[in-house]
Amino acid sequence: MNILKALAQALKEAGRFNKSVQAQPEAILWTDAEHQWVPVVKALRASGRPILMLGEYAPEALQGPAIWLKCALAGKLDGLALDGVPVVYLPGVSRADLRAIESCPRHLQPLAELQYRGVFWTQVNAKDWTLNAFLTSKNGGLGLDVAQDQATQKALLRALSSGGKR
Q: CA geometry: angle at 132 spanning 118 and 48, to 5°?
């Protein structure tokens, strides 16, 4: 089993909806308060999965501030076409940051309304996915038996960020 492929499939599944009773989600919001998934996002992008990312303005890297992300999702940027439900990766942002609209940081406020028109990629208990949770959870994750020591966790991140090529 290829973990990157499983992750890409899990993100795709997050965007599924019933056309009979629902509108297509505007985006899949992937929150990551600990910046744990950054190397994995780069590996997913290298495999051809377009993922928009919150950060400094770098449109060639599909990265920008919140207002740029909103323009990209609205289809207002020349040369950027997004098929299906786009994934918006939010490093340094937790689900709780967006959920608490009254205390949402100013730089994230343009994205706060996406929680109503999009979907969060979260665990069943509504917590953000961590690498360890995704690997070990039997409910939405891979259900693997993984050692919990810090060295193992760091090695897993290194392996995933290289796309499994060692």
A: 55
Strand partners, 32: 91
Instruction: Calculate ∠ Cα 6-11-17, nearest 5°.
Output: 125
Work out the number of other CB atoms within 10 angstroms of the CB of residue 8: 18
pTM for the whole structure: 0.87
Per residue in 106-161, pLDDT (tens digit) is: 999 999 999 999 999 999 999 999 988 999 999 989 999 988 888 988 888 777 66
Nearest to 157 by CA among 4, 1, 45: 4
The closest alpha carbon to 121, from 43, 51, 23, 46, belongs to 51
* Pairing of β 51-54 and β 119-120: unpaired
Report which of 126, 129, 131 is spatially closest to residue 40, judged by C-alpha positions.
131
Q: Say if residues 9 and 49 touch (Cβ distance below 8 Å).
A: no
* DSSP designation for 20: T
Separation of alpha carbons 62 and 27, rounded Å: 14
